[in-house]
Design brief:
Blueprint (H helix, E strand, L loop, with lengths): L47 E16 L6 E19 L5 E4 L4 H14 L4 E8 L9 H16 L6 H8 L13 E5 L4 E7 L4 E7 L6 H7 L5 H20 L2 H15 L8 H10 L4 E4 L5 E7 L5 H12 L5 E6 L21 E2 L4
Parallel strand pairs: 3-4
Antiparallel strand pairs: 1-2, 2-4, 2-5, 5-6, 7-9, 7-10, 8-9, 10-11
Helix pairs in contact: 1-2, 5-6, 7-8
Length: 354
């Protein structure tokens, strides 16, 4: 029997815009764009679409010695945010759907100003990245917004310019880079490029609830000098491991990062998932440091992946919450939305959260 498609929440629905504005539904990854209800007026730019991938937490997150040392190392995931921007040159404001995505509206306004455009428009956001789980949904929305507004006016922006648009809006992940990167998320600034990894699968346990990334960053405890030096050593080791495709070393660094984070924010299930990881000979654990997810890293091409996935699922049952399976973006992948190789999943396990 062929493996089932990856598990995850269904793409978020895009709400209906006012009747006076042409509407195009932001597509789920791999689907075609729906044409506007009515064609734009003569001389009005056509809608622009942008995408940005999310992450499964971080391979490493902490602080380095010296000022502005807060950093994270991205773990790109084959799930995306989608933005569609409908320009309204005669308008004065940018309207965003869903309405609570006010930071994306601010970024859209900043891009319009940089383009010398005084009009407004409608910004629609969708995709399949749940909020508050540690999957970089907010950062992906913002990057997709930059790309969508630029596309409407025939412009593209590189990663550094995209950083500038996001800087000052909120701490952000480095999802504007199509590779694993060390990123200073509070300063919204690239630290160093690390490269890509062989394809990995993640069997994830969600402890439930949501975490506000901005609030989490404000309340994060101080990291002492000794730990900062340990994080520096871990980053150097991780950089070497990514460069050589050393997945066991990647897993060891990611597991240590989860352990260090546990000193500041207890994570239910850490001991249980560590034991499960050993039982299936996994590479290690990967944590959403400011989210609700903790996962076991497995080789996506492991011939025993189905059996190992079932074992981890069964072992997570006593923890409650929800279990899901994801595929990371790796070497050889097209980092734009589209059909992805399936990872074994089976039915989603919906359990009462504890």
């Amino acid at each position: 029997m062929p493996p089932a498609p990856p598990i995850g929440p269904a793409p978020a629905p895009v709400a209906t815009a006012p009747a006076s504005v042409p509407v195009a539904v932001a597509p789920a990854p791999g689907t075609a764009t729906v044409a506007p209800v009515s064609a734009p007026a003569a001389g009005t730019p056509a809608p622009g679409t942008g995408h940005a991938f999310g992450t499964f937490g971080e391979l490493l997150q902490g602080a380095l010695p010296g000022p502005d040392g807060d950093f994270l190392v991205t773990f790109p995931l084959a799930r995306w945010a989608t933005a569609v921007f409908h320009p309204a040159p005669a308008g004065r404001n940018v309207h965003v759907v869903p309405a609570h995505k006010r930071k994306s509206r601010r970024v859209a306004e900043a891009v319009l100003a940089a383009l010398g455009e005084s009009g407004g428009g409608l910004l629609e956001l969708g995709g399949d990245l749940p909020e508050g789980k540690g999957m970089a949904s907010s950062s992906a929305d913002l990057v997709a917004t930059v790309r969508a507004v630029g596309a409407a006016y025939g412009r593209t922006f590189g990663p550094a310019r995209t950083e500038a648009f996001l800087r000052g809006v909120e701490p952000a992940d480095g999802v504007m880079y199509d590779e694993v990167v060390c990123f200073h998320h509070r300063a919204v600034r690239l630290g160093r490029r690390l490269g890509t990894l062989p394809p990995l699968a993640v069997v994830a346990h969600d402890e439930g609830g949501q975490v506000d990334t901005v609030a989490h960053n404000r309340s994060a405890g101080t990291i002492g000098t000794a730990e900062r030096h340990e994080y520096a050593r871990l980053l150097d080791r991780l950089a070497g491991a990514v460069a050589t495709g050393d997945l066991p070393a990647v897993g060891e660094v990611a597991t240590r990062s989860a352990e260090l984070n546990g000193r500041r924010r207890a994570r239910a299930g850490l001991a249980e998932l560590r034991a499960l990881c050993r039982e299936v000979d996994g590479h290690g654990l990967v944590l959403a440091h400011s989210g609700t997810l903790l996962g076991v890293l497995l080789d996506a091409h492991d011939p025993e992946l189905d059996a190992k996935t079932r074992h981890v699922r069964a072992g997570c049952a006593p923890l409650g919450g929800e279990v899901s399976v994801h595929r990371a973006l790796g070497a050889g992948d097209d980092w734009a939305p589209g059909p992805r190789p399936a990872v074994p999943a089976g039915p989603t396990l919906h359990r009462r959260e504890t």
